[in-house]
Amino acid sequence: MDSEDDTRDSADEDFYSGGEAGLALSDDGEADYDFADRDSDDSDDLISHRQQQNYSVLSETDIKQHQADDMNRVSTVLSISKSEACALLRSYNWSVSKVHDEWFVDEARVRTAVGLPEKQNEMPNERELTCGICFESCPRESMGAASCGHPFCGVCWRGYISTAINDGPGCLMLRCPDPSCSAAVGQDMVNLFASDEDKGKYERYLCRSYIEDNRKTKWCPAPGCEYAVEFVVGSGSYDVSCGCSYGFCWNCTEEAHRPVDCSTVSKWILKNSAESENMNWILANSKPCPKCKRPIEKNQGCMHITCTPPCKFEFCWLCLGPWSDHGERTGGFYACNRYEAARQEGAFDDSERRREMAKNSLERYTHYYERWAANQSSRQKALGDLQSLQNDKLEKLSDIQSQPESQLKFIIEAWLQIVECRRVLKWTYAYGYYLPDHEHAKRQFFEYVQGEAESGLERLHQCAEKELQIYLDADCPSKDFNDFRTKLAGLTSKAVSSKNLGGKSKSGKNKAPVGASKSGSSTRGMDDGNIWACDQCTFANPRSARSCQVCDHQQHR
């Protein structure tokens, strides 16, 4: 009964830890490489998984509807009020199956834990009742009580509920004001006594609780986005795309980072934000003052260094000895015989070795970070160009070339592919940074594949950016526009193949693609005659597919 509500969010075959091939971009290469170091024994099953939509985007209206549907299901099956069903679901993290399981195993225990008395107790049937908080006698009509029957006046109820709501989300687990009673105060009591402002706050807390307490749903991490994403268990991919167009990884909520696993991304982001590289730079490019130990960067050619006030110690940059001990006999201003002699005796081996290691480490990190950041910057620029193209340039091009916009979707598809390829290529540099140095063969192949990917992407980006501009600046239809269409579509198709395809596994089966699109379909060896572009989302599908592998739109033959 609704067992899927209680299923763990991660599939048995974790996408990032197995079953996915690495980047394989050569059209004729069949090398065996895997980012996760594990072969896929059944790529067909993985592809069919990714052809299914494995998540749904929820607006605030959708969230409230899902919430109401769950409460109705529990209320109907257990024959309890909706307010009681809401209290049960909150206590069990909005898992309908968990509520049903626990309820039918031991109903009395569940009622006690949640605060739902088996019998609804009414207030004493008297004309006037004494409030349990202010101890004033009030008419029965102005009193109120939860399911336990303890009476309190309306003024006290309003103050009690308002205080709890203003204290935060803990108001969702509110109990009877009587210290000896644990009966739940449900949404019905809130609606009866709370002000409109407090009711709005309570509903927002309830809505957020449905997303944040439910392990099948998460908020989109994009700034200002109010969408949530419900993840369907059973797919190998954690990549989701929100209604705000932000793509992120369901598993770690960082931006989408296939083909790199979440742990590598976590380490890379931490390294980029940590102070470790600052310390490496200080160690590699400075020396400590021999007197006050403050690090000093040498910014002029002379070896005569004077520390900043109040220290003002003068010393030799090479041997760190007092400058008063230096003169013509020690080499003067640009050499230090003492340093050379001490170095030959091994006095500076450890410090020099540490400084050299820090410098090499810093240079290596800078190499990968600069390329990671450059692809990130190029991706952001491509997103801006894509938006500009969709807003006005495509219409302008349609007028200049006298072609309907529906026939220019190949340009939009090219830019979408550029954005996606920039994302994939960006994260390959994070992967390369953590690739062990002793795995020479793997590193050599990785760098070859990465180079091929970068080369193909640059050709596509240049064609979509600079060559397209020629036709945007034209005054009349261009005769060679169809040649441009063929070239751009071909480069786009090749980029799809580059990004999606893995080599062959040791078993001989094709590996599942890495950094693939949502469908994850393989397009090895396809030319323009073997693919068809979806009219709805412009995704390039293999000719054998009867419907689009992204949006399920039917192919028109």
TrEMBL record:
Residues in RING-type domain copies: 127-340, 131-175
Pathway: Protein modification; protein ubiquitination
GO biological process: protein ubiquitination
Acidic residues composition-biased segments: 1-15, 27-45
Gene3D superfamilies (UniProt xref): 1.20.120.1750, Zinc/RING finger domain, C3HC4 (zinc finger), Zn-finger domain of Sec23/24
EC number from the UniProt entry: 2.3.2.31
Catalytic activity: [E2 ubiquitin-conjugating enzyme]-S-ubiquitinyl-L-cysteine + [acceptor protein]-L-lysine = [E2 ubiquitin-conjugating enzyme]-L-cysteine + [acceptor protein]-N(6)-ubiquitinyl-L-lysine
The protein's required cofactors: Zn(2+)
Keywords: Metal-binding, Repeat, Transferase, Ubl conjugation pathway, Zinc, Zinc-finger
Metal-binding in keyword set: yes
Domain of life of the source: Eukaryota
Region Disordered: start-end pairs: 1-47, 497-524
A single MF term (Gene Ontology): ubiquitin protein ligase activity
Broadest EC class assigned to this enzyme: transferase
UniProt cross-references to Pfam families, sorted A to Z: IBR (PF01485), IBR_1 (PF22191), UBA_ARI1 (PF21235)
Family stated for the protein in its record: Belongs to the RBR family. Ariadne subfamily.
Function description: Might act as an E3 ubiquitin-protein ligase, or as part of E3 complex, which accepts ubiquitin from specific E2 ubiquitin-conjugating enzymes and then transfers it to substrates.
Protein name: RBR-type E3 ubiquitin transferase
Protein's organism: Triticum aestivum (Wheat)
